[in-house]
Specification:
13 strands; 4-stranded antiparallel beta sheet; globular
Length: 412
């Protein structure tokens, strides 16, 4: 059991925290403890300024000229170059385009083409729905003989046979926060002759990721969680250098062409990772993400992870001492989890609504998970201890058990 600390001790930790000054870069609403950065990162002051400039000057004054004068066309590669160091990717291996779902579709199809004769996609039971849905759609599109094999985490190894072309895994489970051993799993998948796609939606910007060291084939991830790029921010896609030559994906839009403005009738894929691009880059959204990523130039990812782990311990200590009704389902070993804690309770949704009503914003995942995210760029130790004590009060008084907290919203 972890040790509880006083609020004064929590404030002392904040004063000694080298990451603390980064909080001032975020435009956080007063009276709110924000523990949902693993769903949507908050706004930064720099993003607000950048968006005003892009709208008023680049678009407003520059009009179509800004495709050249502001180099809008290369935004996907420039933003990708900022993400690359956060995920251990080499130069020219990351681009930012479309959504996570669309990028999974493109990479699954490319992986199947790279393993002719193998017709099985393996993924994990309980994986994020879009991963499961897109994998099923790709198998159906390919026709007879292609299938998705869904296995539990403990049964993944025996599920990866010589008929498997590609394995699609999420490094950090979105419900429990449990983390895969990326390097070990990748080696096991390669030993079976298959390729792997890693979903980094709950990894990128949260802790150090090293795709190169893990020898990963492909990866995807969103821009709106720990990367703080704004709601619906475009997603990134990674392709290992060995797979870039001859890379061909099914959505052969003009921006993935080797020379888009040659306006050729026949498609020729770009000889770079930009072959994954499809249509016109969403300049406003890319500009927001571009500005948001600058905060990471002053943030060491190992320090972020260490701070998140310390916050996990503080929160867990409060829960264990004051909330016996709640079960902590996230692994205690820091190497086996991401930057969140998941708590199981039959009425998890109502508890979360009661917390939100008191200014503590986390989220709920069906059927019974209270999910609390630790984003150390802007979160304080004081916030974590205070949020845990408000949770203890909500549980101890039973204030969650009110009709208004039982009504499900469309987005949970």
């Amino acid at each position: 059991m972890q040790q509880r600390i006083s609020m004064d001790e929590a404030r002392a930790l904040d004063r000694a925290d080298a990451l603390a000054p980064l909080r001032d870069r975020f435009d956080l609403p007063p009276g709110v403890i924000y523990l949902d950065g693993n769903s949507l990162g908050p706004l930064q002051h720099a993003v607000r300024r950048r968006m005003a400039d892009v709208v008023a000057k680049e678009w407003g004054d520059g009009l179509i000229r800004s495709w050249n004068t502001c180099d809008w066309l290369d935004l996907p590669s420039r933003v990708g170059a900022k993400i690359a160091p956060l995920i251990g990717a080499g130069e020219g291996t990351v681009t930012v385009t479309d959504s996570t779902s669309v990028n999974i579709f493109k990479l699954l199809t490319a992986a199947l083409a790279a393993r002719p004769g193998r017709k099985v996609i393996v993924t994990e039971a309980g994986n994020f729905p879009t991963d499961l849905y897109i994998a099923d759609g790709v198998a159906r599109l390919h026709g007879a003989g292609f299938e998705v094999r869904v296995a539990s985490r403990d049964d993944l190894a025996p599920a990866i046979g010589d008929d498997v072309a590609v394995v699609l895994l999420t490094e950090v489970d979105y419900r429990s926060g449990r983390r895969h051993d990326m390097a070990g799993m990748t080696a096991s998948i390669h030993a079976a002759g298959a390729l792997v796609i890693w979903d980094l939606c709950h990894s990128a910007g949260a802790f150090p990721v090293d795709l190169t060291a893990a020898n990963a084939d492909f990866a995807v991830g969103c821009g709106y969680k720990y990367l703080n790029g704004g709601p619906g921010a475009p997603a990134f896609a990674y392709v290992a250098p060995r797979h870039i030559p001859g890379l061909r994906q099914p959505l052969t839009g003009w921006m993935g062409h080797a020379e888009p403005f040659a306006f050729d009738d026949a498609y020729r894929p770009a000889p770079t990772v930009e072959a994954l691009r499809v249509g016109t880059p969403p300049v406003l959204a890319l500009s927001a993400l571009d500005a948001a990523l600058d905060v990471f130039t002053d943030a060491d990812l190992a320090a972020l992870k260490a701070k998140a782990d310390a916050m996990f311990d503080l929160f867990a200590a409060e829960v264990e001492a004051a909330c016996p009704q709640l079960e902590i389902v996230t692994p205690r070993d820091p190497s086996e989890r991401g930057n969140q804690i998941a708590l199981r309770f039959d009425h998890a949704y109502a508890v979360m609504q009661a917390l939100i009503a008191r200014g503590v914003i986390g989220d709920f995942r069906t059927p019974d998970i209270i999910r609390i995210g630790f984003a150390p760029l802007y979160l304080r130790y004081e916030d974590v201890v205070q949020a845990a004590r408000i949770l203890a009060d909500v549980m101890g008084t039973g204030s969650w058990n009110q009709s208004q907290f039982m009504v499900r919203a469309r987005v949970v």
